[in-house]
Amino acid sequence: MRRLLSWSFVRHLLRLHLGLFLYGLSVAVMLEARIGLDPWSALHQGVSEQLGWSFGRISQVVGVLLILSSWLTLQVRPGVGTIFNMAVVGPWVDLLRVQSWLPHPSGLMLGTGQFLVGVLIMGLASAVYIGARLGAGPRDGFVLGLSRRSGWSIRGTRIRVELVVLGIALLIGGSIGLGTLLFAFLMGPSMQGAFKLFRVSKDPSPSFAVEGPGVATAPPSVAEGQI
Fold first, then answer.
1. pLDDT on residue 94
2. What DSSP line would sit under the chain, residue for residue?
3. Would residue 224 count as lying in a domain?
4. pLDDT band for position 7 (cuts 50, 70, 90)
5. Is the separation of the CB atoms in 199 and 187 below 8 Å?
6. What are 28-37's pLDDT values in tens digits?
7. What pLDDT digit, counting tens, does each position of 37-91 carry?
8. How many domains does the chain fold into?
9. In this structure, what are the phi and psi dihedrals at residue 203, rounded to the nearest 5 degrees?
10. Taking the model in full, what pTM does it have?
11. Exposure winner among 11, 28, 80, 202, fewest CB in 10 A?
12. Within a domain: residue 1?
């Protein structure tokens, strides 16, 4: 009897969800630091105020536009990881923020320290879930696709993208704080360091294929030592 799912695929799926949980945790930690929004959130807030749409709706629209542009111009194919990223990170953030064990720093110094911890966790989370080779989220996929196409490092690409987004957010009235600037300059190094640590490829496209009825396999490029 043929297996519905290969054990390799199941393990990569578990890795994906562990990474997405850590991603939600990182966002919750940074939000509770209360020293400013990340550039993308500041952009979503500014567009929301301009158009009168909800923050969540703007985030979804921007996500879809990034997926399409990455796919059509940077050849970054979406995968199940892309869908799960858009579907579960938000609920994880909401769930974690209502738990009383998350720190609520009262001063700028403590808030800054907590925000920096959140940035480090997000870099780790990105390497974990993208290393599952099931597809990247809209923003991470765009950054990695641009890095691969331009030849820039992940660090340099992420800083450039975050600064452009920050500038647009500033122009349209998004909330800019210390956390916004810290994220723009430090998320790239955090992400690149985690990718090197876990030996994750810059290609964010999914690498699993389905052979036969429901049997998932990974090509040789996704061997255990290469993710």
1. 84
2. ---SS-HHHHHHHHHHHHHHHHHHHHHHHHHHH-S---HHHHHHHHHHHHH---HHHHHHHHHHHHHHHHHHHH-----HHHHHHHHHHHHHHHHHHTSTTS----SHHHHHHHHHHHHHHHHHHHHHHHTTTS---HHHHHHHHHHHHH---HHHHHHHHHHHHHHHHHHTT----HHHHHHHHHHHHHHHHHHHHHT--S--S---EE-STT-EE--GGG-GGG-
3. no
4. confident
5. no
6. 999 899 999 8
7. 899 999 998 998 899 888 778 888 999 999 999 999 999 999 999 999 988 998 8
8. 1
9. -80, 110
10. 0.86
11. 11
12. no
Residue 51 resides in a domain = yes
In a domain, 81, yes or no: yes
* Amino acid at residue number 39: P
Calpha distance 160→99 (Å, rounded):
34
Q: Which two tokens stand for residue 208?
A: 């699993």
Which backbone phi and psi does 122 adopt, to 5 degrees?
-65, -40
